[in-house]
Each structure stands twice: as structure tokens, then as C-alpha cells.
Amino acid sequence: MTKRNVRFFAFCLMMCICLTCIACDGKTPEDDSSSHDNQKPDKGNDNQNKKEKEKEEESLPSYTRIVLQNNIDGVPLNTRSYYPDTNAFLSKLETLKNAVSKKEISSDAVASELRAAMRNAEGLGLYYDYYQHIHYQDGDTVYGVIEGEYALGGGDKFRSNLKNNIKLVYDDNTLKETLQKAKSGDVICIADNVVIDMSDFIQAGDTTGYESVFQPGVSSGAQSGQKNTIGKIKYEMKIPAGVTLTGFRGETGYKGGMIKVTSYTNIVVVLEEGATMVGVVLQGPDTWDNVNNEPTNLSSGIEIRGNNARILNCEISGFYRMGISAQNVTGVEISYNYIHHILGRETGIAIYANNSEINLHHNLFSNCSRLVSANGDKTQITFEHNMDCGNITNSYFLMNPTNTYDTEYTKARLGIDQCIIRNNTFLSPIALADMKSLAKEMIIEHNLFAYSEEVYRFNPLKINSVTASIYDGRINMQQNVFDILSPQVFSRASSHTKTSEVPYSTKQSVSLTPFEITSKPAVDPGYKEIIQPLVLSVTYYSMDNDSPYVFISELLKLPGKQSHTLIVNSLQACITMLGAYTHYPAYVNGKISYVVNKETYGAHENDGNPIGGGKGYESIFTTGDYVVKDKSELLLAISKVKSGEIIFIEGNAVIDISDATSETLTSLTLPAGVILASNRGYVYEDGSVSTGAIIKSTAFASRPMITVANDNIRISGLVIQGPDPAQHLALWDRCFKSGGPLLGHPYYYNLVMVSGISVIGMNFECDNCEISGFNSSAISLGGSAEKPSKMAKIHHNYIHHNQIKGLGYGVSHGYGYSEIYGNMFNYNRHSIAG
User: Whole-angstrom Cα distance, residue 777 to residue 758?
Assistant: First the structure.
């Protein structure tokens, strides 16, 4: 890098949490009523459906949510993927640790609080009450899930019965190489509880093609400066035809090997004909704050492209567009899986089927927007012995229309071929099906629904021209139990009485004894004070995966009373891993600065503001001349705002300004003299602390998220999230490590470098922000030799996880001058560069 004249004026030394050096050496469907098989929707019919939906939403049935009774005991669920509100989770652990250290809490209350913390991370809703009450039975007739060979959702007691000649893999290199060489009949096993991140290959592309050009010992781009003339070669992680990819999920002592991605991707795994994926944990990149992203910015997990593929005993989560999609395939089995946190607001489809034949059984679903979206007149869905946790948010099924009109009900659109919904346990108070069309055959029988029948709003008669004769064979809805607290059996037929609540549904003369759910209230911890996390953050990137939660789970297994020291130390270990605090907790109290002869050495709050900003920061904005909450309002405000005015983004807003599919983003360019702000650190009336509005990008786009080309601009109290917090060590090794393929810069820069705030204007100020996830730089100050950027003030920010090997800067300088003070830096390859 060319030497620059960089000055740093600071009232205190910059603080780095990490006191030791960090190692740094197919077109997919949308969830709407439009067709997905190149058909043109009928606007008249769609308009009618829209009106019906609006009318229905105006008159939703009232109901009382079932109250969870078991607030103490856990459930025997095998999971490695957790999705808590991490800031609140850390606050709970900090508060508990404080109470234990002061001996202000009983051992029973400690166990209760630990269980409450785990519940926050698991998010299993009513499953805690009903995992042992999954069906009612009357003689030989069972209503709800019938237990299978293994546990519901897989995991415990599952046995893969693997034979010899298994090929073990331990990292992304061996997994990729073994898959590409595999032949039908091969079994590839992810060893032990290994975690494999496939982000490097998916983002930078396949190495095949580069390896043939850049051989070891041959001058690579690293030495020659050769440009990338090959281009990015798309990499798909394919399980070849007839090959099994397995892990040890549920085997004695194992949670299962994990495949994960830390950055946005559309499809992670592809299954070809006869391929099997069993006992593997698949974790996507989406977190709670991605829920309201645009559908194009949500990721997908598995795509099934071959007949007779199977997905068994897997945990699949963190893909807010789709968990599994199957297109134009038959003989697919999806069973004994735990599928959760598939939560996109307009998508969030656990299973998508297009002209496919799928058998789903003994799966456990939690925190999904929809369970099944079905499309295409060849689709056949068999959905049996599945259960949800009572937290599905949209509808269980979406029945999409084809271009064809029904021959019997001529004004209705024809849908899929067949849908069988049998012996399932549904715990969520949502619509059973969003009926955009009529299936040729639909069987709904022997299911257990937690709420009364009208809550599930299944009324095909609202579809244009459909009459009650639909229940005489076309839709067979028989012998279903509604109201889990006071169970009653109902069936439908055209001969039944047409009631106002549920037309043509009649109660059957079956007597069922309600479940007895024992009330187990949580123990009041009697906290004397609530402790906030060490660092105010909403963006967490723990490299310890599920280790913190394993610590808590093991702590819960210990008998009776344990020493206060053991509990405090265990809680601190969890806190350190979740917060990615490294050595900070050991130094924060009295060891980050010293006073000698009235002179302070080290970082300190010399101006009364906390290092890193947040709670206690004196200059927190709470309103502005323009108050916005989403992308469209923000862009409109930027187009209108004038010098001296403030654009304030509401503290709970999440705004994604990118399009990950096209790898582009709408870079925000602010006019001169403008303040863009949110309220990071503001304490609300209920005592909760705002983490600030989030502006984010899920796209690997070369443009900076925010461009400061004009003078006198301030950015304050915001969270600015980039798409790439990873170190990419394996990528670096493939490009430059001696003994490797030496693919050089051409391959390295297939990974698009992203940056947060680019500054060329004068007198820029950035304060009280959290900025993370940029592989190039969080903040870069540029300009030119003739007109460098001057008088920038970067202060009281939390700047972290900008750490790709080779780049990864917190604040970088080209031609720029800045004051940097009161900031907290963590997990940057270089916190400051010039």
C-alpha cells in the first residue's frame, strides 16, 4: 500500500477487545399466488381471491392462545442450531451470574433461569407441553401423530446402520473433493461433530478450472499480477446420484456433523437421483433480523433435482426463503427431520414442491412461515405424522394455482393433483391452507388440531363457483380432532348442516379424555438488578457454533446444588463465547487503564461517554425532521432532506438496501450537512435498551453501502451490517499457501470485496454506531492527493468482525485525516490501516 500521511488525534488510546492478535494469517419460487410453471395468472380470479382474503382478515375468528404449563422441564431434542435474541440472552446470563456471585439466588431458581435461557434459544413453543401428548386415541382410531421407528424430528435413538467402506470428511476441501469423485453406492460421512463452512467455495466458486491453469510451482496471480481471465465458476455442493452423505446425528454421544454457510447463498446442497442425506445438520446464514428482508435477499437450503432422493434425520434451519425445494421429481422422502427458523415474511417455506411427488412424515417443524407450498398439476403431497411447535406464522399449506380451470367448478383454478394430510398434530392457530386453487383430490383425516375448527379457516367454498358438493369426495375431511384442551371430533359433508361458524361440519359422537398437562411454573429468581451485556450489540458472529449452549445444557445436567464458583465460571465461559469477547471480561474491571502520577494510560471514558457507545452515551437521537422505518421511506427522505436536517430511522427498523440475487445494492449517498441517525443506547420506559436501527446488505456488491461524498455529514446511533464477517482462511490457503494449488489473486478476488462507509467528503462524523461484516473495510477514508478527506471524527463506535485474511479493516485510510477515539474494536484483521 502506498504510504499515506495519516494522523490520529485521540483523547484516549483506542481500545481493542481482543488483547491478543487474532489469527488472520434455478430460479426459485416466491410465496404468492402467481404461477411458477411459466403460466399467466388470471387477474380476475386473483383479484377475487385478494378481496376474499381482505374480507377474511377483517373477520378473523377470536380465540384464546393456549398457555404453556411446563416452564421447567426440557425436551429430548437433538439440535445444534439456536436462534435467540442474543442481546437479551446475554443480559439474562449476566444477570444470573451477578446474582449467583452475590449468593442472592436459590439453586432451584438457577436451574429455572438456565432452562428459561435455553428455551429462548430453542424457541419450541407448545412443544414443551405436548411432546409426550402427540395424539388422542379412541379404540383403534388415532388422531394425531403415531410414533414411528425413531423419535419425532429425528436425533435421539436414530441409527443409520452404516456399513464399512465409509469415506470420512473433516473440512470443506475433503468434502468437496470426495463428493466430486463419489460414485453410486458410496457413503460419505462427516466425522464426529465436525463443523464445515462451505462459504468459501460457494462465494468464490469452484476451483476446478483454476487448478488446471495455476499448478503448484507455476507463477500464479500472486506473483505475476495476472488478471482473472477465467471468471467465477459456479460451485454447487451436489450429492451425486446414488450417493449417501451422512452424519452421526442422534448416534450415541453425537449431535451430528454440521454444514453451514456464514454468508448469503441461494442453494447450499443439491440432491441428484437416488441421493440420500441423513444425520446432517445444515445451517443457513439467516438470523432473526432477516425476517423482513425482501424475498430476493433470503437464502435457500436444499434443492432436490433427482427422483427417489431422501432427506432423513437432518436438522435444517436458517434459510428464510426455503428449507427444501423439489422440482419435477418423484419418489422423494423427507422424514424424521427437525426443520426450523425458515421465516421469511413473504416466503419462509419449509418445503416447496413443484410438479413433484413427496412423502413427508415424522418431521418436527418450528418457527416457519409456511410448512408446504405446492404448485403444478402433477404434484402429489403425502403429509403424515408430522408436528409443529405452535409457532408457524402464516399458514400450513399454500395451494398455488395453475393456468387451467377446474372442469367441475369452472370458475375456480385447478391446482395440484393430490394432497393427503393425515395423522398430524397441528399446534399453531393459523389457516390450514391458503387456497388459491383446488386440488384434484384432498384428504384431511385423523389430524389433531390444538384450537377450535373455525380458527383454521379452511373454507374452499370461498373459491369462485365451489359448492358444498366438494365435500362428497373431492375434499374428504373426516374424523379430525379440534381443541386439544377439550377435544371433539368433526367431519364434513354436503349433507351436514350449514352453520355460520364452520359450514357443513358436524361433531361426531366420540368421547375423548383431555390430556392432563401438569403445571410447572418457573421459579422467581428475585433479581435485585438487571445487568446489560458488556457491549451493546445486535450483531453476533460466534465462531464457537453451538458450544455456549452445550455448556448450559451440561450445567443443567449437574445434580442439585453446585458451587457458586463453578456456576459463575461456566456462565462466564458461555458469555465470552456468545459475545465473542475473548479476553475483555478479564480486563474490563480496572485493568484496561492505569493512572500514574495523575496521568492515565490506556483506554478510559475521559469525556463521560462509554467506550464503544451505547447505553449512557450522551448524544442519542430520538427523532428527526424525517422519521422513517423502511427502505422506501429512507430513500424518499434522502431525496428531500436539506442541509441542517435530520433523517431518523426508528430503532426497531431493519432495512436491507441490497439485492443479493443480482449482487447489487442501492448505495446511500447523503447530501451535505445532513445527519442520518437512530437511537442506539436509548433506554425505553420499560427499561429495555435500543440496539439501534439496522441498515444492512446481504449482497456481495462492490459498491459501499453508504457514500459520504459531501461535507459535514454525520452518521449516529445506527447498526450497519455487511454480508461477510468470515475470515476465509481456507480461501487464502488455496490461493497463496505454499504446497496448495496457488490459485492466486484471480481466484481470491472472485470473492467480491464489500465495504461499509466510504468517505471522501470533509468534516465527517461517525459516532455511537455498530459496524460489522465487511471483508474490505467498515469505514474507509479516501479523497485524492490534491483533495484528501480531512477532519473526520470516528468515535464511540463498536467496529467488529471485519476480518478476511489479506484485507479486513475497521477504519482504513487512503488520502485521509481522522481523529479516532472512544471506539471498541474486535475481530478486525487490522482495526486501523493507513
Answer: 9
Q: How many C-beta neighbours within 10 Å does residue 120 have? A: 16
**Across-strand partners of 819?**
793
Name which CATH class applies to 193-206+238-507: mainly beta
Domain regions of the chain by residue span: 15-20+606-833, 86-129+522-581, 193-206+238-507
Residue 181 DSSP code: H
| pLDDT tops 80 at residue 417 | yes
In SS3 terms, 390-434 reads as: CCCCCEEEEECCCCCECCCCCCCEECCCEEEEECCEECCCCEEEE
Give the separation between CA 275 and CA 278, rounded to whole angstroms: 10
Question: For residue 64, what pLDDT is reported?
Answer: 94
Alpha-carbon distance of 553 to 540, in angstroms, equals 21
Strand runs labelled E in 552-674: 593-596, 599-602, 626-628, 646-649, 654-656, 658-659, 664-665, 668-669
With CA atoms as reference, report the closest residue to 422 among 384, 458, 391.
384
Q: Are 768 and 717 in contact (CB under 8 A)?
A: yes
* Helix (H), strand (E) at residue 317: strand 315-317
Dist. CA 241–CA 238, nearest whole Å: 9
Please, which residues bridge with residue 75 across strands? none
Using CA atoms, how far apart are residues 280 and 275, in angstroms rounded to an integer? Answer: 14
- How far, in Å, CA of 826 to CA of 502, rounded? 58
Question: With left for phi above 0 and alpha for psi between -120 and 50, is residue 687 left, alpha or beta?
Answer: left
Mean pLDDT (the chain) is 88
DSSP element (H, E) containing 360: strand 357-361
For residue 439, give the amino acid letter: A
Q: Is 715 helix (H, G, I), strand (E, B) or coil?
A: strand
Percentage of residues in the chain with pLDDT exceeding 70? 90
Q: Give 58's contacts (C-beta < 8 A, 6+ positions apart).
A: none
**CA separation (Å) from 319 to 285, 302, 344, 751?**
7, 10, 8, 21
Cβ(263)–Cβ(285) below 8 Å: yes
Residue 607 has pLDDT above 90, yes or no: no
Lowest mean pLDDT among 58-62, 489-493, 648-652, 680-684: 58-62
Please give the Cα distance from 675 to 714 (Å, whole number). Answer: 5
**Mean pLDDT, rounded, for 582-603:** 86
**What pLDDT score was predicted for residue 512?**
97
* Single-letter code of the amino acid located at 419: C
pTM summary value: 0.91
DSSP 543-583: TTTTHHHHHHHHHHHS-S---HHHHHHHHHHHHHHHHT-TT
CA–CA separation, 757 and 676 (whole Å): 13
CB atoms within 10 A of CB 776: 21
| Cα pseudo-dihedral 122, 125, 130, 135, rounded to 10 | -110
CA quadruple 561, 563, 565, 570: dihedral, nearest 10: -40
Gap between the Cα atoms of 79 and 87, Å rounded: 21
Residue 371 and residue 363 in contact, taking contact as beta carbons nearer than 8 Å: no
